[in-house]
Structure formats: structure tokens, C-alpha cells
Design goal:
Number of helices: 6
Number of strands: 2
Largest sheet: 2 strands, antiparallel
Order of helices and strands: HHHEEHHH
Shape: elongated
Structural class: mainly alpha
Helix content: 55-70%
Strand content: 5-15%
Radius of gyration: 37 Å
Strand order of the largest sheet: 1-2
Low-confidence stretches: 11-31
Length: 186
């Protein structure tokens, strides 16, 4: 009877050891499949180190903005991320964006901050207008048009540049007439 129990226990041990080896084989296969998929995705994307670095920087920037959003309202309004230039960075610190109280900026930092904010205004406006145009086109909204009709009307206009002012205003027309009369030799 004891012999049967010993055989059953040894059979159980064999089953557990076989199960363990099957599990480890399954894990190693899954692991190798993950590695293969990861290496395949890296090779397809070119394994671009710059892209990975950009993603990390963008993620860090989002984390910093999330930290600013958790501040109390008054502090949140006065805090922004300021790019730390290389000459400002102390040894051991990495170059990047740091949260700064805007009210405590010195004149040079304030000037740099304002320059960085208005640097790409035209580009920002153009992208905003392009986004609006795409949205309007996507939903097929027709823009209102104004049509003005006159009967028996003929309009002619001449535009001269007077001292760098090409707009045909009454004042510019008067200045043009005066400048032409004063330059005519008698």
C-alpha cells in the first residue's frame, strides 16, 4: 500500500514537473514571440532613435503640464513651462522645460518668454484657418455670399504709392495731387 502511494506521489511529481516545463516552454515561446514582434515593429519603423526620443520628450512634457494642472488655480495661472537654455543649465542638469512662476521672471527671461510665445503666430493662425476650412468642408457648409448689383455703373480707379501708402484713401489722393503739382517744373 505504501508502495502504491509512493508511486502515485512520484507520478504527481512527474506531472507537476512536466507541467512546469510545459509552462516554461509556453512562457519562453510567448516571450520569443513578443521579442520577434517588437523587433519586427522596430525594423518596420526603422528603429528610429530620434522618434523614440521625441516620444519620450513629448510624454515628459505632458506629465509636466499635468502637474501644473493639479496646482491651485492662482498658482496654475501664474505657472508655465519655460525652456531652459544651455547657458542657464547648471552642470548635472539636463536641458529642457522647467515650470516657472511667470511673475518672478527677470527682464531677460521675460523677453525670451514673450519671444517664444509670439514666434510662430502666423503659422498658428494659418493652421487654425486650415483646420476650420477642413471642418467646414467636411460637413459641406456653404459660406454666405453677398452679391451687390448696380445698374449703369462704371468704376475706374488708379492707385499710386504715396510715401509707402498704397491705399486709395481720400487723404492719399489729396497728397498725391499735391505732390504731383509741386513737382511739375514751370
Amino acid at each position: 500500500m505504501e508502495r502504491k502511494k509512493e508511486e502515485e506521489m512520484s507520478d504527481d511529481d512527474d506531472i507537476h514537473s512536466n507541467t512546469g516545463s510545459v509552462n516554461s516552454i509556453g512562457r519562453s515561446r510567448r516571450w520569443s514571440l513578443r521579442e520577434a514582434a517588437l523587433s519586427l515593429s522596430k525594423s518596420l519603423s526603422g528603429g528610429d532613435e530620434d522618434e523614440r526620443k521625441r516620444d519620450e520628450e513629448e510624454e515628459e512634457l505632458q506629465l509636466q503640464w499635468a502637474a501644473i494642472e493639479r496646482l491651485p488655480t492662482y498658482n496654475r495661472l501664474r505657472t508655465s513651462l519655460f525652456f531652459q537654455h544651455q547657458h542657464v543649465v547648471e552642470e548635472g542638469e539636463k536641458q529642457g522645460r522647467v515650470p516657472v512662476d511667470v511673475g518672478r521672471l527677470g527682464p531677460i527671461e521675460r523677453h525670451l518668454f514673450i519671444e517664444s510665445m509670439i514666434k510662430h503666430i502666423e503659422k498658428d493662425n494659418m493652421t487654425l484657418l486650415q483646420k476650420q476650412r477642413r471642418r467646414i468642408d467636411r460637413v459641406n457648409v456653404k459660406q454666405p455670399t453677398i452679391e451687390v448689383r448696380y445698374k449703369n455703373l462704371c468704376v475706374e480707379a488708379e492707385c499710386e504709392v504715396v510715401q509707402g501708402k498704397p491705399l486709395p484713401t481720400l487723404l492719399n489722393s489729396l497728397m498725391s495731387t499735391i505732390s504731383v503739382q509741386t513737382t511739375i517744373p514751370v
